[in-house]
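Appendix B, example 12.
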Amino acid sequence: MKFLIAGKNGQLAQAFIRRLEARSLDCLVPDEARLDITNDAKVEEVVASYKPDIIINCAAYNLVDKAEEDHGTAFKVNELGPRNLAHAAKKHKAVIVHFGSDYVFDGRKENGLYVENDTVNPLNEYGKSKLAGERAVREEHDGHLIFRLSWVFGAGKQNFIYKLGEWSDRSEFLKIACDEFSVPTSTETVVDVVMKALDQGVTGLYHLTNSGYCSRYEWARLILKHQGIKKFIRPVSMESFNLPAKRPTFSAMSNEKIAHVLGVAIPTWEEAVKAFLREGSA
């Protein structure tokens, strides 16, 4: 089994690389200049020469606020890139794994967590570009696994846990949104579930999060408490930050579909965060 990973430098890609190396699986992880997913000729060249069985797309434009102005780049990376990868995957008979976002929803659902067939209605350009990417993959290749993720954290600096540490180091107190709800999701959980799904030959669209949900404020409190950091956190409204991109207030997704298909119990977000913090301080 041969794996090709796009988006080498991201926290999710690094988690996959560690797992594949631990399992001694054949894995190619080109530099982003060599595997420029927005360039169909470069994608074709890499896929044709390596002939992977699985293509895992961890490349993404994740600058939510910047995407409001730079939406051309956001769509190029988040829609055209996945389309190029899916097209090459179909041509060379590979499965493509692609990652979507909870920001495809508008947050207005009131009767439970979001499930896969709920109506999508992204509020910002980033969410629109991620939804376009999902659709591009589905249009290009039936042999796809698309997982919508939320509030991803793992080793590195590209996540809320690292940023919270930086904020607490330089501020007397913190202001964290108490009216924004979703699900913190560990890269280790993502890798666990994706690898099981690939082993079982699963295809389709699924929500992949840790279990449960919380506000940013609740997440921050758990992190600082577990780290033994005594810092006052003031719960505030998202609106107080005056961010360019509008966010859904409640975008928590249910992982029940993929958990049922695989016959697994997915850890809660609290368990995943605590495990990550324990490993980081070990």
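The CA atoms of residues 258 and 264 lie 8 Å apart. The chain is about 40% helix and 15% strand.
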